[in-house]
Design goal:
With about 240 residues, the chain is mostly beta strands. Helix content is about 5%, strand content about 25%. It binds zinc ion (ZN).
Length: about 240
């Protein structure tokens, strides 16, 4: 049993390492605290890791101050109970919007739409690659095909459309598939602020802080007062 667990841990740990040739992206969520529930390069820590275009995809949910994903135990049917539901999503790259789909109703958990798996989604072309962001809230998408976006462009809000068991943000990068389609082409691994995200990675914006000592704190959740120790990154991932 111990041997078995050791092998399992070893295999899981291998999925924690960043693959070669990762592409750097910006955080798609800018305020609040989030956890990656699928991510990495092993199937046991990333349900997407199956050799398809979405193999290096991440799924992200929000965390409240109690470390819970929703205000009710187990989540329940009320979408607004989920911390991430309705949170603004920003473009993770400078690029051009290739596809926008915003037609599917938000589903009541745990209903899923397995025919339209990405639900409402946005595909962004970037450096001859494509980034897919999926499961947007119906009617929330602010961009259209042909728009140029940068990392300050608000794309829309996290929703619960497509193949999703609860509100979350799905993101992956792919290359060389049929143009303007999803789940096509070669999976491309990526980092966010230099971090290869795996299951359990925390994206914490609450520590967003002023770069100069003594200047006011910036960022939601940072609280009152002054920065006594400057933090040189704007987004902490651990
Ligand atoms: Zn996903």
């Amino acid at each position: 049993m111990i041997f078995f667990l050791s092998v399992m841990s070893f295999l899981a740990l291998r999925g924690y390492r960043a693959p070669k040739n990762t592409v750097e992206l910006s955080p798609p969520l800018k305020h609040g605290k989030y956890i990656v529930i699928n991510g990495g390069s092993r199937p046991m820590i990333n349900a997407h890791f199956n050799g398809s275009a979405q193999s290096y995809a991440i799924d992200i949910v929000g965390l409240n101050s109690f470390g819970m994903r929703a205000s009710s135990i187990g989540g329940g049917e009320n979408l607004s109970d989920y911390v991430i539901y309705g949170k603004p999503v920003y473009s993770p790259c400078v690029g051009k919007v290739l596809v926008v789909v915003d037609e599917f109703d938000d589903l009541t958990p745990p209903q899923k739409d397995i025919e339209n798996i990405a639900g409402n989604h946005i595909l962004i072309g970037f450096d001859e690659k494509e980034v897919l962001l999926a499961h947007f809230k119906k009617g929330s998408i602010k961009v259209k095909a042909g728009d140029f976006v940068d990392t300050n462009t608000m794309l829309g809000e996290v929703g619960n459309t497509g193949n999703t068991s609860e509100p979350h943000l799905h993101m992956h990068m792919e290359q060389g598939g049929k143009p303007d389609t999803i789940l096509n082409g070669k999976p491309i691994p990526f980092t966010i602020n230099g971090n290869f995200l795996i299951r359990g990675s925390i994206l914490d914006h609450y520590r967003f802080c002023a770069l100069r000592e003594g200047s006011p704190l910036l960022g939601l959740g940072a609280g009152e007062g002054k920065c006594t120790k400057p933090i040189m990154v704007e987004y902490i991932i651990n």
